[in-house]
Specification:
This protein has about 130 residues and is an alpha+beta fold. The chain has one domain: 2,3-Dihydroxybiphenyl 1,2-Dioxygenase, domain 1 (Roll). It contains two helices and eight strands; from the N terminus they run E-H-E-E-E-E-H-E-E-E. The longest helix has 11 residues.
């Protein structure tokens, strides 16, 4: 499935889970469950679950965030945010770069909440 054009959300790109110890959790998900470890950035670790990325977050609890966040893949993060804002979705900020990979690809995200206050995000990979 390809990412939709501006205004719609696409497939789930990433799901985050709160963990208490990043090193212990990386060892469990990588070595015990056999999930392919992509990279670790500080207190965040990323895995590939057959095309859906799993992010383990050892900072979420201390920052008062809940356990899970759904990240929807989009091809045009700014355009998608503008289109959803026009339908009444209140975003928590502008799209911003989260991470730059060694090959120059950039991960961009912007966050919003559903009517129950659950955190959701738009995610886009920008090629150099």
């Amino acid at each position: 499935m390809t990412a939709p054009t501006a205004g719609g959300v696409g497939q789930i790109a990433q799901i985050s889970m709160t963990v208490s110890d990043i090193e212990r959790s990386v060892a469990f998900y990588r070595d015990v469950l056999g999930i392919r470890h992509l990279f670790t950035a500080g207190q965040l670790a990323f895995f590939d679950c057959d095309g859906v990325r799993l992010m383990l977050d050892a900072m979420a609890e201390a920052q008062g965030r809940g356990n899970s966040v759904l990240y929807f893949r989009v091809s045009d993060i700014r355009g998608s945010q503008e289109a959803l804002t026009a339908t009444g979705v209140p975003f928590e900020g502008a799209p911003h770069r989260i991470h730059t990979h060694a090959d120059g690809r950039e991960e961009w995200m912007t966050f919003f909440r559903d009517p129950d206050g659950n955190l959701l995000a738009l995610a886009a990979a920008v090629k150099p």
